[in-house]
Design a protein that fits this description.
The chain is an alpha/beta fold. 37% of the residues lie in helices and 15% in strands.
Length: 224
C-alpha cells in the first residue's frame, strides 16, 4: 500500500483534531467518502452501497475501513483525508471552478476518484471532469489492466449488474503522469450490486461479482 501511510497519517491527525481517542483512530486503516456535488443530481443515491462494500472488504481482505462512509464536498479541504472518494447518481452534476481546482489538486497529490454511473450521469460527468482535467480524455482500460486483477480476477473487465441500453460495461480512466487518478465504471451499475439484496433483488452471484470488483477498485486505489 504505497499511499496508505500518507493518508493514514492524515486520518490520525484529523482524529486528534476532532478529539477522538487513539484506539478509535487506529482501529481502521482509513475512511472513504461519497462526494456531495451540486447541480441537483442525486449524489445520495444507493445509500446502502458503500457500507456494504466496506463490510465486504473488511471481511475478505486484510484492509480495515471505517464502517460508514463520510460525505465530502469537492471543494472542501477535508477531501484530502480520503484515499478513495466516490461519485454516483442519475442526473445533473456541476463543479464550480473552485471545486474543480480543489478536486484536481486532490487527485494529482495522490487521491483517487471512482465515478460510478447509476444510469444517466454520463453526459454530465464527462463535461464536468473536463473542468478538472481539460488536457485529459477518458480512455478505456484494457482487460489486462491490474485494476481487474488486484484481488479478484476479472479477465473480461467489469461485471454487468443491470441492463439499460444493452451496452457492454466499460471501465474508463483519466491518467495523470502515468497514474490512474479517476476510474469511471459505465453501463455497469456497480453501486446497485452493492446495495442490500432486497433493494434490487439481484441474484447472489451478481451481487458477489459487483462487490468483488468494488474491492478491486478500492484496493487498487490505495496501492497505486
Amino acid at each position: 500500500m504505497k499511499r496508505v501511510l500518507w493518508f493514514f497519517m492524515l486520518v490520525l491527525a484529523f482524529a486528534a483534531a476532532q478529539g477522538q481517542t487513539g484506539s478509535t483512530a487506529q482501529r481502521y486503516h482509513f475512511r472513504i467518502a461519497k462526494i456531495k456535488y451540486g447541480g441537483g443530481g442525486d449524489w445520495y443515491s444507493n445509500p446502502t452501497s458503500l457500507p456494504n462494500l466496506i463490510e465486504f472488504i473488511n471481511q475478505n481482505t486484510t484492509v480495515r475501513i471505517a464502517p460508514a462512509e463520510d460525505v465530502v464536498e469537492p471543494g472542501s479541504p477535508q477531501i484530502f483525508q480520503y484515499p478513495y472518494v466516490y461519485i454516483t447518481g442519475h442526473g445533473n452534476i456541476t463543479f464550480t471552478d473552485a471545486e474543480a481546482s480543489n478536486l484536481r489538486a486532490y487527485l494529482i497529490s495522490g487521491g483517487f476518484l471512482h465515478i460510478d454511473d447509476n444510469y444517466g450521469l454520463d453526459k454530465y460527468v464527462r463535461k464536468e471532469m473536463k473542468k478538472v482535467f481539460p488536457e485529459l480524455e477518458f480512455v478505456e482500460l484494457p482487460f489486462l489492466h491490474k485494476i481487474y486483477q488486484q484481488h479478484f480476477l476479472f479477465d473480461k473487465g467489469l461485471p454487468k449488474v443491470h441492463e439499460h441500453d444493452g451496452k457492454s460495461p466499460q471501465g474508463y480512466a483519466l491518467i495523470w503522469e502515468g497514474r490512474v487518478v479517476c476510474f469511471y465504471s459505465y453501463e455497469c451499475d456497480l453501486g446497485d450490486g452493492w446495495e442490500d439484496p432486497q433493494v434490487h433483488n439481484d441474484p447472489p452471484e451478481v451481487r458477489r461479482k459487483a462487490l468483488e470488483m468494488g474491492t478491486n477498485i478500492v484496493l487498487w486505489a490505495i496501492d497505486n
